Amino acid sequence: MNYRLGVYLLLGGLLPWLLVGWSPSSRTLLAREGWYQVTLYAGTREARTALVRAGWHPDAIDLDRGTVTMVLPRTEVERLSRQGWPLLTVRPLGFPSWDAGYHDYTEMQEVLFSLADRYPDILAVQEYGRSVEGRALYVAKISDRVWEDERASEPGVLIFANIHAREHLSAEQAIWAIRHLVTRYGRDPAVTNLVNQREIWIMPMTNPDGVEYDIARYPYRYWRKNRRPNPDGSYGVDLNRNFGYRWGCCGGSSSTPSAETYRGPAPFSEPETNAIRNFLLDRPNIRIALNFHMYSELVLWPYGYTYDALPPDMDPTDYAVMVRAGRKMAQLSGYRAMQASDLYIADGTSDDWIYGTLRIPTWTVELYPPASAPFGFYPPDEDIPRETERNRGMIEYVIALADEPRRVLGLAGDVISPTVTLTLPPEPPAGGVILASLTISDNVGVTLVAIRAGDTVTRLRSIEPPLREGTLTLPLVLPPGEHTLVAEAYDRAHNVGRSESLRVEVTSQASTWWSPFMNVSTPRR
Ligand code: LU0
Ligand code: CA
Ligand code: ZN
Ligand code: CA
């Protein structure tokens, strides 16, 4: 028997892992570890009996098509292939249909690559390492000069998620943030200014092996760790106990490989944590970090290794920054803020290393649901949009702080907002185009201006290089009706100034009247 087959894994047409020309002698390997749903041709009862005698058991048999379907780990799929079984489809397993709103590893890749395709000027996807099972670890870079090395020119921020496998909403939160930033760029003034002025790095799935293992079966496996094979036959290291600051110091992790909080044989023994370390060591412009976990709706600041709020290795000013900003973040999301060890002592966490070694202010956010929720780590996918959108303010706030986190204390950085005045010409223009004038000033420089008509942003302009003083003219075209116009000006620190609002009446497309004397009170902040 010598079957020659082309087996296509069509992943949304994007990543065709093409396994062509399989034959009993071929050494073709599947690109990824994990679980697959396999359909193969076994058209007679004799063929199916041979399959069963060779050690497989069909999950289902389609008698009309003569096919057998099974769910198998990668090694078993390869064994089928080596024995020459005619494989028709080999599909990586993901979330069940009722949780299809969540992204498995492949779908996360697809989202990243398709967004990078659509927004090549502001989104680049890079591989920053490989997991134990060899999956690529992806980081999305979002920035205005995304293809340039901006280490010397822009402050950086790192957001990472899903270091614990079963905490799937955290990957959704990171994917939401990527999508939010790229799709709102050029439309939303705050997003545009942040993307222009920051180098934003987002790692949506830092433990892909664990994720794939967790979801390959229903009920879900409740898996937390990575998929390192341990010497005692158990699997997995708790990646959030494997970072090398006071690693294993304080009874906040386990030396037993089968334990849920197994810290691993050495600090950074795992490629997943080591890759995060190298990534950060390589980028000294990253000045703030945030990581998403589940669940309980909390914002946690370091340290986790001690109950002491201000041990000798905690700088009091940094502490004040993390407490003040952490409380603000919690308030923006409706979460609670506290020190990590208020939960329990945990050593070898990412935050303890990021702050303890790099002195970067950092927080762990335990997302939705609240601790009392019956579904725990597995909220229904219907909750994803509401619960990810909920953290928009928190995420934008942290990105904004990256230039100078101490700004929250008013001790450093630019704390002065731009001023902006909006004026309209005294005469209605021909053709319905209003030439609005914005007079701006700032101690450092204005980087972006925008005009809102009610809730709609009608004009937006990035300013490069930043402008300390000046007047800009922006043409506006407004539909007939009454409008309330407000101008906004941002600086590099993301301070925002707003003008008084002006009421404008557009009577038709050809003529426009307004009443600059009829200033109405500023409707927002
Ligand atoms: O790693 C953990 O135990 C975290 C909390 C620490 C950062 C203190 N909680 S989780 O595992 O439930 N996400
Ligand atoms: Ca940028
Ligand atoms: Zn976690
Ligand atoms: Ca300023």
- Mean pLDDT rating: 90
Percentage of residues in helical conformation: 10-25%
Total strands: the figure is: 21
CATH architecture of the largest domain: 3-Layer(aba) Sandwich
Question: What would a concise description of this structure say?
Answer:
The chain has 525 residues and is an alpha+beta fold.
Keywords, separated by commas or semicolons:
single chain, about 525 residues, alpha+beta, Aminopeptidase, Immunoglobulin-like, 3 domains, eight-stranded mixed sheet, seven-stranded antiparallel sheet, 11 helices, about 20% helix, about 30% strand, disordered N terminus, disordered C terminus, binds Sulphamoil Leucine, binds calcium ion, binds zinc ion
Explained architecture:
The chain is an alpha+beta fold and 525 residues long. It has three domains: 3-93; 99-409, Zn peptidases (Aminopeptidase, 3-Layer(aba) Sandwich); 419-513, Immunoglobulin-like, CATH 2.60.40.10. The protein has helices at 45-53, 74-82, 105-118, 168-184, 189-197, 208-215, 271-281, 316-333, 350-356, 384-389, 392-401, and strands at 5-9, 17-22, 35-41, 60-62, 67-73, 87-92, 123-130, 136-142, 156-161, 199-203, 286-294, 298-301, 336-339, 362-367, 419-423, 433-453, 456-477, 481-491, 496-498, 502-506, 512-514. The strands form four sheets. The chain has an eight-stranded mixed beta sheet, sandwiched between helices. The longest helix has 18 residues, at 316-333. The N and C termini lie far apart (75 Å). Mean pLDDT is 90; it is low at 1-28 and 516-525. The site of Sulphamoil Leucine has 12 residues, from strand 11 and strand 14.
